[in-house]
Amino acid sequence: MRDYYIFKSGRVSRKDNSVMFEYSEEGQEKHVPIPVNDIDALYLFGEVDLNTKLLNFFSQSNVMVHFFNYYGYYAGTFYPREFLNSGDVIVRQVASYSKKSARLELAKEFVKGAAYGTIQNLKRYKEQAQDELEKVESYFEEIDKQSTISQLMGIEGNIKETYYAAFPKIITQEIEFTKRVKNPPDNMMNALISFVNSMIYTEVLREIYKTQLNPTISYLHEPGYRRFSLSLDVAEIFKPIYGDRVIFALLNNNELQQKHFDKDMNYAYLLEEGRKIVVKAIDEKLNTTIMHKQLKQQVSYRRIIRLELYKLVKHVLGEEQYSSFKIWW
């Protein structure tokens, strides 16, 4: 099974026990069949029509669908009915959230994991970003001293602000990037970071679906309406080591350039060709394998996300203390 990415506008429908994508190209009607048992997740970047018959089919087949709007920004996810439900895990998840000390303990681990990945990235560019590296390392030492979630979020914000200040030093292309701006991004770098982060978020969400965890019960980010906040928590760990490393490689190798962004929108819109380049790079990154230190076998970067979630399940069940993932390569 694998992910499918649809960039063209058209219609996706059920055709017998398969999926059909229909679109027009140069006046010709095209029909592309996709075996449903080969779909792990479906990413829709174009203006695509579908109906409830198809969504019901996806739900029966445990297929997640991620929607991106015209500008390439993440819009939402069709989350099929859960098939690995565990009342015990959900009760324990809620208990870990409800108890202040237990929630804070987990939240600190997410921030530590993210900060550690950030430090490892800066160490790769130590000559260019020595000042930022030293600052982030000092903030890392402050994480365990925080007594509330808001204080912890403050430290996390300081780490990110310092880290992003190093981007113009790390990236060899001439870029305009003075601060992180979201909703909407205001330039090329912010558009790229937002797009990559949304891809990491959806990858984490897909892996949560394959566990007994409930995606709406989180610890660092406040649980709320209409969002899968646990995915936000766990994605913090993987955004620096998966997402940012892809960004650095694409820009420093000139695979992604200013021409891949819309000039009329101050380069704050990643064009279709640019999105394809980024999606391909992330997919290749996630399919890369590494020898796992504990398992002593090759595992993919994507599998590492699932293993991290299994650790979280063991924690809430009281079987094993959770320690966030620390990259070793």
Protein described:
- The protein is an alpha/beta fold.
- The protein has two domains: 2-78, CRISPR-associated endonuclease Cas1, N-terminal domain (Ribosomal Protein L15, Chain: K, domain 2), CATH 3.100.10.20; 87-316, Four Helix Bundle (Hemerythrin (Met), subunit A) (Up-down Bundle), CATH 1.20.120.
- It is 47% helix and 15% strand.
- It contains ten helices and ten strands.
- The strands form three sheets. It has a four-stranded mixed sheet, sandwiched between helices.
- A hairpin with a 5-residue loop joins strand 7 and strand 8.
- The radius of gyration is 20 Å and the shape is globular.
Key attributes of the depicted protein:
about 325 residues, Ribosomal Protein L15, Chain: K, domain 2, four-stranded mixed sheet, about 15% strand, globular
Give a concise summary:
This protein is an alpha/beta fold and 329 residues long. The chain has helices spanning 52-60, 87-98, 100-124, 130-140, 149-165, 167-170, 188-209, 229-252, 272-287, 301-316, and strands at 2-6, 10-15, 18-25, 28-34, 39-44, 48-49, 64-68, 74-78, 289-291, 298-300. The chain folds into 2 domains: 2-78, Ribosomal Protein L15, Chain: K, domain 2, CATH 3.100.10.20; 87-316, CRISPR-associated endonuclease Cas1, C-terminal domain (Four Helix Bundle (Hemerythrin (Met), subunit A)), CATH 1.20.120.
